[in-house]
Specification:
Shape: elongated
Number of strands: 0
Strand content: under 5%
Number of helices: 3
Order of helices and strands: HHH
Largest sheet: none
Distance between the termini: 102 Å
Helix content: over 70%
Oligomer: single chain
Length: 95
Amino acid sequence: MYRWLIALLIFLIIGLQYRLWFGETNLRDIWDLNTKIELQKEINQELNLRNSELNAEVQDLKTGLSALEERARSELGMIKEGETFYQLVQPVKEK
């Protein structure tokens, strides 16, 4: 009687271990998913930081004139009234 009970328990343990290591949702898959989740969290954190920087820049552009002026100077090449614009040209190297 006890032999059957011991054999049944061993069979159940082996069956459960098989499902744990090789089944549909095994430990290896869970470990891989946890690694992917951690990587995605890092990516999301970087993107949230970038979004907050862009949001701060948008707010600055909406309210502050200095950022708008700086952007007009650097990207559009605009100058203030009364300023003198100097353009330095590199000499062409003769061959």
